[in-house]
């Protein structure tokens, strides 16, 4: 989509436009980034892991293989597949704007809960990411786990593991700082081990974001996960930031009640029985 965003539509003509996104391959640059990421992992994180998982999409499996992890035994996991874009899948940016302008406008109302026709919202996608997390929580406790997936799925991991609010997630998505973005072959390293005193906690407490092929695009430092809690006042302060557009109106409510009583409706749950004579 990078070239499509910049007005180059040729890639979407012919066979590629007919191909399902699960069968997209990496580009030469993507393969270079995957190999670079593999070298970084082996030199700076771990040379091997206890469990390996990858999305079943072709480009993820290609990435997994090119990481070059010695003696890796990969589990192909369909819950790690990329977010389903429904009717928008397989279309260039120009085609999307032309054919689904109304849907794109609806997306701007709420990026988190918007669901493309036939596809998934970010919120719905997070449900299967959570399902995968519960799986490895039970089957991989105390193990080193390597997961290869996709940009939107990584957003899901970040939402769930960092316990991001919808508001905070949108802030990160809209941030002009490239270090807040998820780039190709980005690494999110979650750990239970305190990087200072090496104390091991019961759940992930620290995260490090790394873009191996250009570390200027990432923070590259351990950050403690501060999962938010809210007081009553904090909740109400947030709600007050949203303008209230509709309120009770005694005159309108009275008019509605009167019109409903004229046809014998006494409750929105009660419909008169019009039995034929």
Task: Please explain how this structure is put together.
The chain has 277 residues and is mainly alpha-helical. The protein contains 11 helices and 6 strands. The chain has helices at 2-5, 15-18, 28-44, 58-66, 93-99, 101-109, 122-139, 151-161, 166-174, 232-240, 250-262, and strands spanning 51-55, 74-77, 145-148, 187-191, 206-210, 222-224. Strands 2-1-3 form a 3-stranded parallel β-sheet, with helices on one face. Strands 4-5-6 form a 3-stranded antiparallel β-sheet, with no helix packed on it. The termini are far apart. The mean pLDDT is 90.
Rounded mean pLDDT is: 90
Strand proportion, as a percent range, falls in 5-15%
Q: Low-confidence runs (pLDDT<50, min 5 residues)? A: none
Helical residues, percent = 25-40%
- End-to-end distance: 65 Å
Structural key phrases:
mainly alpha, single chain, 277 residues, 3-stranded antiparallel β-sheet, 40% helix, 3-stranded parallel β-sheet, globular
Write the layout of secondary structure elements.
Layout: H1 2-5, H2 15-18, H3 28-44, E1 51-55, H4 58-66, E2 74-77, H5 93-99, H6 101-109, H7 122-139, E3 145-148, H8 151-161, H9 166-174, E4 187-191, E5 206-210, E6 222-224, H10 232-240, H11 250-262
């Amino acid at each position: 989509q990078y070239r499509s965003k910049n007005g180059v539509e040729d890639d979407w003509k012919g066979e590629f436009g007919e191909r399902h996104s699960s069968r997209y391959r990496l580009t030469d640059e993507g393969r270079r980034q995957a190999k670079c990421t593999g070298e970084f992992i082996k030199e700076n994180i771990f040379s091997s892991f206890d469990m390996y998982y990858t999305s079943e999409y072709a480009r993820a499996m290609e990435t997994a293989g090119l990481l070059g992890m010695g003696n890796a035994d990969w589990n192909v996991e369909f819950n790690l597949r990329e977010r389903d874009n429904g009717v928008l899948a397989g279309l260039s940016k120009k085609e999307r704007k032309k054919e689904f302008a109304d849907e794109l406008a609806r997306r701007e109302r709420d990026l988190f809960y918007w669901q493309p026709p036939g596809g998934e919202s970010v919120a719905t996608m997070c449900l299967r990411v959570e399902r995968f997390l519960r799986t490895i929580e039970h089957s991989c406790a105390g193990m080193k786990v390597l997961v290869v997936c996709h940009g939107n799925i990584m957003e899901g991991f970040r939402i769930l593991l960092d316990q991001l609010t919808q508001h905070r997630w949108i802030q990160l998505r809209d941030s002009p700082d490239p270090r807040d973005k998820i780039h190709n072959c980005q690494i999110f390293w979650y750990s239970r081990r305190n990087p200072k005193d090496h104390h091991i906690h019961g759940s992930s407490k620290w995260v490090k974001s790394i873009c191996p092929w250009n570390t200027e695009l990432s923070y590259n430092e351990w950050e403690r996960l501060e999962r938010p809690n809210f007081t009553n006042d904090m909740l109400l302060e947030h709600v007050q930031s949203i303008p209230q557009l509709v309120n009770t109106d005694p005159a309108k409510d009275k008019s509605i009640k009167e019109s409903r009583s004229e046809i014998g409706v006494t409750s929105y749950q009660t419909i008169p029985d019009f039995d034929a004579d």
